[in-house]
Known about the structure:
Order of helices and strands: HEEEHHHEEEEE
Number of helices: 4
Oligomer: single chain
Shape: globular
Radius of gyration: 16 Å
Structural class: alpha+beta
Distance between the termini: 25 Å
Largest sheet: 6 strands, mixed
Strand content: 25-35%
Amino acid sequence: MNRRSTRLAVLTLTAAAALTLSACGSDDGSKGRDSDRIAGADTEDKASPSTGPSEPGRTGRPKIYLPSDVTYEFQWKKTGDAPKDAVLHDAEQRIRAVDMAIAKQDPLDKGYRFYSEGAAAAESQKYIKEFVDHKARTTGLTRYYNESLTIRDDGTAALVYCEDQSKAFNKFLKTGKTDVTPVTKDSYVVYAGTLRKNDKGVWVTERLISQRGSAKCQP
């Protein structure tokens, strides 16, 4: 396995998501499974609280703990618009929660399920299980940037963003070995997601599609 496939397994592509993705300049990058995303460290690695933004709104959100070698650089800009900033926050928390489930080797961890539903939750479970099956997890720095966010008239949100996996790798738990792979155009992935605000006030990801090697995301 190697981390160079999409972070989340490709989900069903709706017409709306397809339009969003093409409008954001995706090109010939191949769609991939997230089996490539395996990066990590020993199960004995000490987990530390996520350094993400403070949780807005209601209490009851899951605490996210990650190994110290799992880090992020979120370059998403604050919009000054409260609903949009809430969407970005919860999308970020979902990303962290998936990596937490991988580190815990738990495909049914409650954290990522708090921030995703439907197809997105089901595919995340499959993705996490691939890491568990290979006894591996994520490690290194992952960067997120070039976001584009629209809240539609029906109340759902369309979020497109880029992921830079050039400094993130797979680490295998039995050997402690990190699989450092070369940087290519496929180290950069574009995502298009659909989110909905649930009755807890959380923006949950319902669908997420991805494309590797997109021109939109190249450095």
